[in-house]
Amino acid sequence: MKRWLSVFLTLSLLLGCCLTANANQLTTGKDELILNNTSTTPAVNTLWSNCDTGANWDTESSRGALSLNTADPALGKGCIQVDGVGEMWFFSICPAGSIDCSYVTHVDFWFYTDNVNIFKSARDCAFDLSYTGAWSSGGVRVNAGTLRNLTLQKGWNHLTLPLDFANQTPDCNLSQITRFRFYAVGLDDMAFQVRMDELRFVNQAGLENADGVIANSVMELIQAIGTPNSYSEPSIQAARKAYDELTQPQKDLVENYQDLLNAEAAFAQLKEQGSVVFPQPCVNP
Ligand SMILES: [Ca+2]
């Protein structure tokens, strides 16, 4: 602790000249907490499903069926859809550990409805996450009250919904999500069509820096190319494809784009020289 205090005092002295307003803050114990907090709370912006296939999705409704809609998704090539009466369910079983929700604060997705009263009319509704292999009654969830207060429009809605951590179960393990569901039950004889697309788990830092998080993943792909050699074609192509799919604001954040251009040029030169060979399987002598 003394060492950290020393570091903060040194930092505050160094920054004191140009950051007078912040210098005092850096010397307080409270600010040590803030600094630690920022260093251990990464920006989370995890795309869990682009919903372009129905993989890992299901519905529990006995009065509806899950289908893939490729005609009118919000994003990409498809979205999942439920046509139902009385109950709305989207349901997913996750491999344990595949979602680390330790730093997640919101769930973010596109939601289509042809009935804007679907949550207001429901007897119960929630988006809840479970860690135990069974649905928990006191787990982390988007509450019914939050859903009922939504002002939905007929058609696609982009929702960023806060998770309620107040009533989580004592054994709750956010890094070991095993399932989650999004439901509205007790809709009587109401018939509806709902769709879901592009589901992400995010936190505030991830929301504020969504483009930065995506750009970082492309920068990592470019960095992974390393010095181009005759085997570099797949990694160069992967980085190029990922870069080309970015929006312009995201492209502007890719700081090592020149490295990709250099790698492409170097690889083209290797090809011209006839140095590019197909990878051969390793054979033990
Ligand atoms: Ca999609």
Care to describe what's here?
The protein is of the alpha+beta class. It folds into two domains: 45-208, Galactose-binding lectin (Jelly Rolls); 211-277. Helices cover 32% and strands 25% of the residues. The strands form two sheets. Strands 1, 3, 4, 6, 9 and 11 form a six-stranded antiparallel sheet that branches. A five-stranded antiparallel sheet has the order 2-5-10-7-8. It is elongated. The protein starts with a helix and ends in a 13-residue tail after the last helix. Residues 4-39 have low confidence and may be disordered. Calcium ion binds next to strand 11.
Radius of gyration: 24 Å
Q: How much is the average pLDDT?
A: 80
Count of the domains: 2
Q: Report the portion of residues in β strands.
A: 15-25%
Outline, from the CA principal axes?
elongated
Q: Biggest sheet, in brief?
A: 6 strands, antiparallel
The second-level CATH architecture of the largest domain is: Sandwich
User: Remind me, CATH topology of the largest domain?
Assistant: Jelly Rolls
Summarize the amount of helix as a percent range. Answer: 25-40%
Low-pLDDT sequence parts: 4-39
Q: What does the oligomeric state look like here?
A: single chain
Structural class designation:
alpha+beta
Task: Give the C-level CATH assignment of the largest domain.
Answer: Mainly Beta
How far apart, in Å, are the first and last alpha carbons?
55 Å
Helix segment count?
Answer: 9
CATH superfamily of the largest domain: Galactose-binding lectin
